[in-house]
Amino acid sequence: MHCSQTIFEDATPELVRDFFWDDDFRLKWDPMLVCFKILDEFPLNGTTIIHWIKKFPFFCSDREYIFGRRIWESGKAYYCVTKVSAKILLSMRNCKTFSNNFELYLFIQGST
Predict the structure, then answer these.
(1) Structural domain tally of the chain?
(2) In whole angstroms, how far apart are CA 71 and each of 31, 44, 83?
(3) Quick check: helix, strand or coil at residue 14?
(4) For residue 79, what are the β-bridge partners?
(5) Given pLDDT bands bounded at 50, 70 and 90, which one contains residue 94?
(6) DSSP character for 32?
(7) 52, 37, 46: which is closest to 99 by C-alpha?
(8) Is 6 inside a domain boundary?
(9) Percentage of the chain lying above the pLDDT 70 cut
(10) Do residues 39 and 49 lie in contact, with contact meaning Cβ atoms separated by under 8 Å?
(11) What CA–CA distances, in Å, run from 74 to 27, 77, 96?
(12) Band of the pLDDT at 88, cuts 50, 70, 90?
């Protein structure tokens, strides 16, 4: 497990949230992201099921990630959770190489 804290100067919490959540824009700045596809969306609770293919160096296989992610606002902060779902992975057995151990938790807040 890795824990870090990042400070973005001159950026609102909304801008940071949108930066991490915008996969179309991520294709422009993340050279490892080959493609993505939204598999399902649940607007009532803000959850999205997404598929990523990430490129790794030639001596490694590319990795497929299928995960659920959710974001919600609480006061002036945002909580963002991205996590692989074992249930989804079981239905994707035809994937060549996929990651089954990926979790990302973000807490985004402005200066206090």
Answers:
(1) 1
(2) 24, 12, 12
(3) helix
(4) 72, 107
(5) low
(6) T
(7) 52
(8) no
(9) 81
(10) yes
(11) 29, 5, 39
(12) low
In degrees to the nearest 10, what's the CA dihedral of 80, 86, 92, 98? 70
The domain that holds 61 is classified in CATH as 3.30.530.20
Residue 101 within a domain: yes
Give the separation between CA 55 and CA 38, rounded to whole angstroms: 18
Contact 64, 95 (CB under 8 A): yes
- Asked if 84 contacts 100 with a C-beta cutoff of 8 angstroms, the reply is yes
Residue 1 is assigned to a structural domain of this protein: no
Q: Write out the two tokens for 51.
A: 């598929």
Provide the pLDDT confidence category of residue 60 given band limits of 50, 70 and 90. Answer: confident
d(CA 37, CA 65): 11
Q: How many CB atoms lie within 10 A of CB 74?
A: 9
